[in-house]
Amino acid sequence: MNTRIALGQISASDDLDANILKSANFVKKAADNGAKIICFPELCFTKFFPQYPLDKKYYNFAETIPGPTTERFQKLAQEYNIAVIINIYEKTDKGEYFDSSPIISADGELLGKVQMNHVAQEPLFYEKEYYRPGTTGHPVFKTPFGNIGIAICYDRHFSEQMRALTLEGAEIIFIPQAGITTNPIRGYELEMQGTAFSNQVYIALVNRIGIEDQMEFAGGSFVTDPSGEFIAHAGDKSEELLIADCDLDLVSKLRRDRPFLRDRRPELYSRLLKE
Question: How many domains does the chain have?
Fold first, then answer.
């Protein structure tokens, strides 16, 4: 089965409504190009506020899931018959905050959400001051267009999470990201190529673009196939809708030809479960 996917490499201004309207146009354009799934970057509709040490005014960016933004994209998904993955700052009725990616089916149903499990804390990424480690685990969403996993930004560095998504049946893992130009861009490309190869999954990483105060986002969104080869790659200077065709039959073929999952020895890996 072939699934055409789209990645919306966008920038964010201070105008939430303008950011959402721009993203809505990307949804329409993706659907017009035959895409069945579109994914947007991390915190895609607001400025990247975790670059600042805790400032409680940014709590005002948070909203519930479902909530106003997810409901707008549910209508868009249904209108254009395309599945949509966004990423927003989530608040719960318990007063907890998370970095979360809702996933919406092509008929407008909110299938669920994934919360970032691993929360970074370093200069320009003061994320532990804004949100908690996720509680949603490693869900994989079965859609008519393939089995979809999500690893949010920093989560991609943890091979345990990527393997867990694979074992749950993921065929495509989407990564909403906020990566900057001072990070070793080629390093995380190589990392994701290796992850795709060892798990025999498609990986679709979508990054922000643009300059926000101290941060310049690197763009360079890409899709790798299950053998780790790039099949689509965006530029690093401007907004872009990246389109890629994913042959999901290649996932099962490579898993037959290179049976890494078959030959796992979980009984030898108890060390991985220790603190």
Answer: 1
